[in-house]
């Protein structure tokens, strides 16, 4: 099989980088090299930003209806090419094909939301706010925006960024993850097939140097980032120093509370799917389960159900979870499991020696489960980003809420219960940005904003929904009075009052 050379997209054209630094893109189930991606030169990044800057002059003037029709065409193309996009995700990321198709569907939701741009970008007007004075707001594009995405959702995360950014009249420079770029590149190709003009959507590749160049560049007006807390915090400070707006969705430590009145099989199945799906490589994965009261008696059932989950390559029809994205990711997870044992947690399921027939080189780690986990342990404090579930026991709902609120992260949390009172108490008192009630992964539908909080988020406005429209636009307020022809002035008014 030929190894793909991943191009840049600059001014609507696929361009091969002249960089001397290229990285292999590896199938995590087989370790076969499937593509090579460049770390673009500073001149190439500059060219991409200049292309976006030039295209903005005309794109900002394109009527809302035309932008809407491009988004309509893009959503149809994504729908028609779901299988191809999912296959590329599975080949380079490793997640199962059903999970990959689900990811494409969640990305598609954002594009469908962008199809409503003709109403989303409307301003407000107050007629006769003063005598013959009208006040109205305009939501105008900022200019050139940029996005930097993590590896774990190579379709969904770019869709969290560029569709609404360009639908509101901005142009865009995207830097996808170098670990699995092919599906992202195909998505951008589909955007151009849908009618996105040359220069409106550009793609560059690289590491910290490219990210820093994007953040520092005076032409970039706003940056969306999804990735690790360490990188996001550094880029956010850099963006603030450069005087530009940024949204940074970062790390997490999500909890799932299980009340004793919950439907046992539903709660366990949903919990395990959230913890171990995509091999735990989700920022919204519930990596901690808090069993309240008598729910601690369910631990044997949780262990039994986890033991039935199948590990295999993402192309395996009945696989529940695939490999981790890289050997380095696997080694990190294995090291954290070892640390959990050393620090005193009880290892009930050990996935370290997971063997998958015909895939001896795959980055596989099986479902792993610890009990007797405390808040001081490394496996609780750090985001493992692997198929490792920590079990915590508490006596009451109040203890569960206090335990979760003491964690610095606030990306997502869930509760399983059949009590409306308990659910309402939980959603009111929990200090986490996204809450699921009998829903294990509470990523909201795209016409609501992604609202992680505390250490999981920097910036006031998140992706998707109304917040994204506000993030990618500048509100301009106009106060206007039109005088009757030949109207005679009544003299100088030196006050601030509108009359």
From TrEMBL:
Enzyme Commission number(s): 1.2.1.27
PANTHER family (UniProt xref): MALONATE-SEMIALDEHYDE DEHYDROGENASE, METHYLMALONATE-SEMIALDEHYDE DEHYDROGENASE [ACYLATING], MITOCHONDRIAL
UniProt record similarity statement: Belongs to the aldehyde dehydrogenase family.
Alphabetical list of Gene3D superfamilies matching this protein: Aldehyde Dehydrogenase, Chain A, domain 1, Aldehyde Dehydrogenase, Chain A, domain 2
Protein name as annotated: methylmalonate-semialdehyde dehydrogenase (CoA acylating)
Residues making up the signal peptide according to the UniProt record: none
Matches recorded under CDD domains: ALDH_F6_MMSDH (cd07085)
Broad class of enzyme this protein falls into: oxidoreductase
Keyword Oxidoreductase assigned: yes
Pfam families: Aldedh (PF00171)
Occurrences of domain Aldehyde dehydrogenase (ranges): 18-478
Record InterPro entries: Ald_DH/histidinol_DH (IPR016161), Ald_DH_C (IPR016163), Ald_DH_CS_CYS (IPR016160), Ald_DH_N (IPR016162), Aldehyde_DH_dom (IPR015590), MeMal-semiAld_DH (IPR010061)
Keyword list, A-Z: NAD, Oxidoreductase
């Amino acid at each position: 099989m030929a190894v793909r050379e991943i191009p840049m997209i600059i001014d609507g054209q696929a361009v091969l980088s002249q960089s001397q630094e290229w990285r292999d893109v590896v199938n995590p189930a087989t370790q076969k090299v499937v593509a090579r991606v460049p770390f673009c030169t500073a001149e190439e990044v500059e060219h991409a930003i200049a292309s976006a800057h030039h295209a903005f002059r005309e794109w900002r003037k394109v009527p809302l209806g035309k932008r809407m029709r491009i988004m309509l065409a893009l959503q149809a193309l994504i729908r028609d090419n779901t299988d191809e996009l999912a296959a590329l995700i599975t080949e380079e990321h490793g997640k199962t094909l059903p999970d990959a198709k689900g990811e494409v569907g969640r990305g598609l939701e954002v594009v469908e939301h962008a199809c409503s741009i003709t109403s989303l970008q409307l301003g407000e007007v107050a007629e006769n706010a003063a005598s013959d004075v009208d006040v109205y707001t305009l939501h105008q594009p900022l200019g050139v925006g940029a996005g930097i995405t993590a590896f774990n959702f190579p379709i969904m995360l770019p869709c969290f960024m560029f569709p609404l950014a360009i639908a509101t009249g901005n142009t865009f420079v995207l830097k996808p993850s170098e670990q699995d770029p092919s599906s992202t590149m195909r998505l951008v190709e589909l955007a151009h097939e849908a009618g996105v003009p040359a220069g409106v959507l550009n793609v560059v590749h690289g590491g910290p140097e490219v990210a820093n160049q994007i953040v520092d560049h005076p032409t970039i007006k706003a940056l969306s980032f999804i990735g690790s807390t360490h990188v996001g915090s550094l880029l956010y400070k850099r963006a603030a120093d450069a005087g530009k707006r940024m949204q940074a969705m970062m790390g997490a430590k999500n909890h799932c509370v299980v009340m004793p009145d919950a439907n046992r099989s539903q709660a366990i199945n949903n919990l395990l799917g959230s913890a171990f799906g995509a091999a735990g490589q989700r920022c919204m994965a519930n990596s901690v389960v808090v069993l309240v009261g008598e729910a601690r008696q369910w631990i044997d059932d949780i262990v039994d159900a986890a033991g039935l989950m199948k590990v295999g390559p993402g192309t395996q029809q009945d696989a529940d979870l695939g490999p981790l994205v890289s050997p380095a990711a696997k080694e990190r997870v294995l090291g954290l499991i070892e640390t959990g044992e050393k620090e005193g947690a009880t290892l009930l399921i050990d996935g370290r020696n997971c063997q998958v027939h015909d895939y001896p080189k795959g980055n596989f780690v099986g479902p792993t489960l610890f009990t007797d986990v405390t808040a001081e342990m490394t496996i609780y404090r750090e985001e493992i980003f692997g198929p490792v579930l920590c079990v915590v026991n508490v006596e009451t709902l109040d203890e569960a809420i206090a335990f979760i609120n003491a964690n610095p992260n606030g990306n997502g949390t869930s509760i399983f219960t059949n009590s409306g009172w308990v659910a309402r108490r939980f959603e009111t008192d929990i200090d986490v940005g996204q809450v699921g009630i009998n829903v294990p992964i509470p990523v909201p539908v795209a016409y609501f904003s992604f609202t992680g909080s505390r250490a999981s988020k920097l910036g006031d406005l998140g992706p998707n929904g109304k917040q994204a429209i506000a993030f990618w636009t500048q509100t301009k307020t106009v106060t206007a009075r039109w005088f009757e022809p030949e109207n005679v002035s009544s003299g100088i008014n030196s006050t601030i009052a509108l009359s």
